[in-house]
Amino acid sequence: MPYKVLVIPGDGIGPEVVDAALEVVYAAARRFGVDLEIKTAEAGDVALRKYGAAMPPETLKLADAADVIFKGPIGESAYDVTSLIRMRYTLYANIRPVKNLPGVPAIREIDCVFVRENVEDVYVGAEYKVGDVAIALKVITGQGTRRVARVARRYAEMRRRKVTVVHKANVLRVVDGFFRDVALEELRGLEVDQMYVDAAAMELVRNPARFDVVLTTNQYGDILTDLAAQVAGGIGLAPSGNIGDSKAMFEPVHGAAFDIAGKGIANPIATILSAAMMFEWIGRTDAAMAIRRAVEKGIENNVKTPDIGGKSTTSEVGRYIATIIEKL
Ligand code: IPM
Ligand code: MN
Description:
By secondary structure, the chain is of the alpha/beta class. It folds into two domains: 1-99 and 233-328, Isopropylmalate Dehydrogenase (3-Layer(aba) Sandwich), CATH 3.40.718; 107-112 and 121-216 and 225-232, Rossmann fold (3-Layer(aba) Sandwich), CATH 3.40.50. The protein has helices spanning 14-32, 45-51, 57-65, 78-88, 142-158, 175-186, 197-206, 218-232, 269-281, 285-300, 314-327, and strands at 3-8, 36-40, 68-71, 93-99, 111-117, 127-130, 133-136, 162-167, 191-196, 213-216, 239-243, 248-252. The strands form two sheets. The protein has a ten-stranded mixed sheet with strand order 2-1-3-12-11-4-5-10-8-9, sandwiched between helices. It has a two-stranded antiparallel ribbon with strand order 6-7. Strand 6 (127-130) and strand 7 form a beta hairpin. Helix 7 (197-206) runs parallel beside helix 8. The chain starts with a strand and ends with a helix. It binds 3-isopropylmalic acid and manganese (II) ion (MN). Residues 78-79, 82-83, 222, 253 line the site of 3-isopropylmalic acid.
């Protein structure tokens, strides 16, 4: 039975980086004999203009039928696509590994994995405006916290067995206090510490090597992972996986970058490394490792986009990495 993959190219630089990444996906699937059935569907700002819906019914149907979704960045309608997919399929853990790549200038050495709760917090979309007052609800549940903490535990057990729980319980005493308490309970037996989110932002720049696994709520995770990606050398390199119990979605951490769209200069590595995470998730570590090795080789051989000091185009980087995998 083939794995059913739904590809959503997205907006801005999305189609370019996804095309480049798909070359790599096809090369890895061929080389390692992974049976993928790949379909493509529209979603995002362009879909909204064309069909009046950022997530058209046809795309939703294909997404429902897929085992895994491989998605580019979405523009202004991201909440209606990205968050919808996360919530609809209960992809409750957002895995964002942050690690330097050899040969890429970075602010500091960093090697950690963010496990970001992915369906609760202010992302539940409960916002109200009453006269001169605007209100957003921050929702944290015990069940939601326990299940994402269990994912953090699994990652810690594969790594240095250390988890930092990041929150702001000195202000949000009830809500963040609950997240902290439930998380700490679930992580018993590991080396666990906790940090306020403001201090965590500082520490991620000052001494990022102290972090192994970082477990945090949805919005803090959103903000801290952009920060951490930049510490590691740039947001163009940062992959992610949105994981549920039976389905998953893989996408770059970065956005649609309309300012550089269509120029062929967008870095496809974040999307390519997201493809590696996808292979890992379907149990094909061999293909995942080959992709990562090929990405490193490409950088080593100076086939890289301008954001990391190269002169190659988006598609040249994709093709080069695909070729390396074919020759492995
Ligand atoms: C991300 C993005 C999304 C988020 C937006 C586009 C809805 O910033 O995946 O980090 O806030 O989660
Ligand atoms: Mn973000």
